[in-house]
Amino acid sequence: MRILAAGDHFVRPELIRAAVSQELSGTGGELPEFGELTLPWPHEPFGPVGGVREASGTEDGLVEALEGAAVCVTQMAPFTERVFAASPELRLVAVSRGGPVNVDLAAATRHGVRVSFAPGRNAPAAAEFAVGLMLAAARRIGTADAELKRGVWRGDLYAYEESGGELGGSTVGLVGYGAIGRIVARVMRAFGAHVLAADPYADPAAVRADGVEPVGLDDLLSRSRVVSLHARLTEETRHLLDARRLALLPRGAVLVNSARGGLLDHAPLPQMLRDGRLGALALDVYDVEPLPDDWPLHGVPNVITTPHLAGATRQTAHRAAAITAAEVGRFLRGEELFHLANPAVRGGL
């Protein structure tokens, strides 16, 4: 039996191979044959490939590498209808990310291929990064750093009207209360913030048990001095924060998005920042990635930008490999998968 480790320059093939080997080492049998493929991400941006989103590499390269493979562990490989049709021995695709957006799930189901994913793999990293963005935006760290590097000493940022705000004692709103949101809430409460959470899928009693107030989205936006987005991007959540909802924010509020760019309607933001309606904006994700030269927020004051790095820790890469390796182990032992994306497909090899 052959397993393809289709890694990249973050979740590297050798990490996948080591994690799967460790998972299977206690079974007493021979380890499977491994093949390796290294995709170009992140040295080359991901994007749409053959009808799937956020993928890296080519269909031709993947089909060639999959020859004879029953299992593939990957983060970014483009699993399209064409790839499934050309890989008749394939039975499991274990995707080492929070959602299998690089997989055509309908095609996988038609071809009898099970697809698993790795929820929570980057939750600690993404939560820490979101907190860092909140601090940087609220305290003008990005502005002060950029100005000092230009040789400008911005002592005027100590003036009352220019001073930032503290998280302690503030109301912080979290849009989405999954694994990442819960970690952020714990840190915010440690700072002394009052935390609101808007998530229609979260159990209100469980939210309250965390010391967090569950509220509706409009209520959260109108009450929060700092808002951080942690929802998944679906057709229902695209432009969840549109012009109407952005107008609900208190004047001078801080807005952070390290989840998905499509959650936020970017069109109203430049004017909101210029006229002070929005106090600061921190973004790690965008409506278009990489950013074009004419991106409307280039040069707008009080904007902090990072290139989609929230999950970029070595621990995330190791967790991703370990979670998917555990799914491979369950699959080969004939056990139920913990994170199956297409439950209509049943059975093993």
TrEMBL record:
Residues 131-310 form the D-isomer specific 2-hydroxyacid dehydrogenase NAD-binding domain. GO terms for molecular function: NAD binding; oxidoreductase activity, acting on the CH-OH group of donors, NAD or NADP as acceptor. The keyword Zinc does not apply. Keywords: NAD, Oxidoreductase. It comes from the Bacteria. SUPFAM superfamilies: Formate/glycerate dehydrogenase catalytic domain-like, NAD(P)-binding Rossmann-fold domains. Pfam families: 2-Hacid_dh (PF00389), 2-Hacid_dh_C (PF02826). Residues 58-339 form the D-isomer specific 2-hydroxyacid dehydrogenase catalytic domain. InterPro entries: D-2-hydroxyacid_DH, D-isomer_2_OHA_DH_cat_dom, D-isomer_DH_CS, D-isomer_DH_NAD-bd, NAD(P)-bd_dom_sf. The keyword Nucleotide-binding does not apply. Belongs to the D-isomer specific 2-hydroxyacid dehydrogenase family. This is Hydroxyacid dehydrogenase. It comes from Streptomyces violaceoruber.
